[in-house]
Amino acid sequence: MIxxxxxxxxxxxxxxxxxxxxxxxxxxxxxxxxxxxxGTHTKSTAKLADGSPLSEKTELPFMVKFLSASSPxxxxxxxxxxxxxxxxxxxxxxxxxxxxxxxxxxxxxxxPEILIAVSPFRALSGFxxxxxxxxxxxxxxxxxxxxxxxxxxxxxxxxxxYVFNHLSPELLEKLANHSELIAYLADFYPQDRxxxxxxxxxxxxxxxxxxxxxxxxxxxxxxxGLGVEVMANSDNVVRGxxxxxxxxxxxxxxxxxxxxxxxxxxxTVLQRGLDEYQTGADDxxxxxxxxxxxxxxxxxxxxxxxxxxCVSGEVTVSNSLEQRETVRKGEACYISDxxxxxxxxxxxxxxxxxxx
Length: 356
Known about the structure:
The protein is α+β, with helices and mostly antiparallel strands. The protein has helices at residues 19-24, 81-93, 130-143, 148-151, 156-165, 169-175, 180-186, 194-200, 249-255, and strands spanning 2-6, 10-16, 33-38, 47-48, 62-69, 75-77, 113-117, 121-127, 201-206, 211-214, 220-232, 238-241, 264-265, 268-271, 274-277, 284-289, 297-301, 306-319, 324-328, 332-335, 341-355. The protein folds into two domains: 72-265, Sandwich (Jelly Rolls); 268-355, Jelly Rolls (Sandwich). The protein is 21% helix and 36% strand. Helix 5 packs antiparallel against helix 8 and helix 7 packs antiparallel against helix 8. The radius of gyration is 21 Å and the shape is globular.
């Protein structure tokens, strides 16, 4: 089975009024469009071409999103599987409704994810090297002795604790004078302690086609741009700042991996027109498919069910059962695993997520 799938856009204040509309062919709107989900998560399941929910046909271990940001998302991290199972049970035992704004665990799944840039994309991801953080703070302290205490900290966990337990509002405000990144974020969230955490993280810039992988415990925040996300089928997130939503510093510290990480990655060429993003995730594999008018991408073996989203031109997918579907810019399709081999033709760029 190969079928186009659709879904309604989701609006959040940090979304863009034009990025997703431009991609999918909507009229530009005054409402910020943040995401479109292609999967079977209960929060927003996709619909097949006949209008029926995809969740009535199958349950996917992953989902794909279009994501557009015109302003910063929260500082956040996701749980590993063990934390998700235990946290979901605990919040159920406490009687927290799924709709409760203080609830962190919406399901029992972990949420490793990859974001592939469709437009130039700006993000924060992973702690910077401790030497780099310490050197920056020592240089700031030379200009402003008020930073001396923070500059004496010498571990990533210690910096995290200092921000939330000791960093004064006055120093938070002054930090913006020493960092263009913090000055930019402070325009949206003045006096927010997430500004101090942002100072500790890598600022990365992705060109279209480049990606960032976010394993469990990786502190991150998306700042600007349009991308395709692939993730485990989960909506579990804990926030630590740059948001008006519920913040849980204790749980964020429990999740956080206190290592210097910058998991920016590019695709690995497998054959002409087919590249893989090697994340090591257990739930999914991700590929870029770029057939040309004179070049067929043929006989790709599916390890499971798949979602294909097109971001430019058009791509036709077909299988050995003589099923085929043409997916144009901004469209998506579901591919069952009844026929293991699929081929792609056309002239465009699409991203293929396959369940493992």
